[in-house]
Amino acid sequence: MWIVAFVLGWMLARTMTCFKIDFIPNVIFIPYDSNITTIIVNESCIACGCYAQQQNYLGFNCFSHNNTCSMFPTYPVRYGLNTMMNTTFYFFELPPIGKRERI
pTM value? Predict the structure, then answer.
């Protein structure tokens, strides 16, 4: 019985730490390219992170006040980063720094 509990505990811990993701709190990623695809997901930030990792998205904005996320499968050529309370920009890969525009 102890072995079964250990295996189930290990599986649960492994599932909870399924990926590494970096973030910038109180910042929103704003694409300026109208051709960029944005997917809206009605989930918590953690669930959005798992979904983004499974779908190989590069990053997403999480809006904690209404539990929605805006996913980015690719980064646009032109973008901005802006301060916004209750929003976090999560990313598996940083957007290209040289192409960021000041807003």
Answer: 0.74
